[in-house]
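Input record, target 12 of the design panel.
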């Protein structure tokens, strides 16, 4: 009798887990497709659709969550830092807001599911890391090899190419 009850409970638990996993996979695939179609994504809505995403509020909440730890290395304050390990935590948030979102003309939802900042659900998040590596390569290796430039230390960043757009222009407007 006891055994049967346990088995019954086990089956219910198994079924519940299965439904949960299927739903999780479904929403993530949905998000990926939306992230890949970034250009057509409505900037004011989250990946869930109707609930508007408030970037100022998201940033305010994150800043509140790191009070007292603003100057600590990002890797100690956040959960999944692979690139900006030693960057002060508060500065990482400024990079997200101005260096990434603003320079590409997007909000946080282009690379993140709001509130689940440490996750890797959207391919754009890893693209951003690869882009940063490319920028470092250009600044450290390629630009210094070009002689007779105006700047002693010429430098590019995300804005140099993106200029507020997801897809950098190949032609001047007009
Ligand atoms: C272009 C893509 C992109 C945009 C837009 C972007 N992020 Fe990020 N975000 C990243 C990447 C990449 C990382 C991981 C950095 C690393 O590995 O060092 C990250 C990491 C984070 C983390 C650390 C999460 C953790 O616990 O590991 C937070 C918090 C965060 N972003 C918040 C934001 C907020 C808030 C915005 C909007 C203002 C935003 N991001 C916009 C790409 C982006
Ligand atoms: C040398 C020019 C250049 C620089 C600098 C540059 N990018 Fe890009 N970026 C591109 C090009 C080209 C694409 C591909 C556009 C396309 O799909 O045709 C791209 C695409 C992307 C995408 C994918 C967008 C999408 O939704 O399809 C992200 C995210 C991105 N860049 C982030 C960054 C970040 C963050 C930086 C700064 C660390 C950066 N880029 C710097 C040229 C650049």
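The sequence produced for target 12 reads:
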């Amino acid at each position: 009798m006891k055994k049967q009850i346990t088995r019954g409970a086990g089956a219910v638990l198994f079924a519940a887990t299965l439904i949960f996993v299927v739903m999780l996979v479904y929403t993530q695939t949905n998000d990926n497709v939306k992230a890949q179609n970034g250009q057509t994504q409505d900037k004011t809505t989250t990946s869930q659709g109707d609930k508007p995403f408030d970037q100022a509020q998201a940033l305010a909440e994150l800043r509140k969550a790191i009070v007292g730890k603003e100057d600590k290395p990002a890797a100690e304050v956040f959960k999944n830092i692979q690139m900006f390990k030693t960057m002060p935590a508060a500065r990482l948030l400024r990079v997200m807001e101005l260096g990434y979102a603003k320079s590409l003309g997007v909000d946080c939802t282009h690379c993140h599911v709001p509130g689940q900042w440490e996750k890797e659900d959207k391919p754009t998040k890893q693209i951003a890391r690869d882009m940063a590596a490319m920028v470092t390569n250009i600044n450290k290796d390629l630009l210094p090899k070009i002689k007779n430039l105006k700047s002693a230390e010429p430098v590019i960043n995300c804005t140099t190419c993106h200029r507020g757009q997801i897809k950098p222009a190949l032609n001047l407007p007009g």
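DSSP finds six helices and no strands in the chain.
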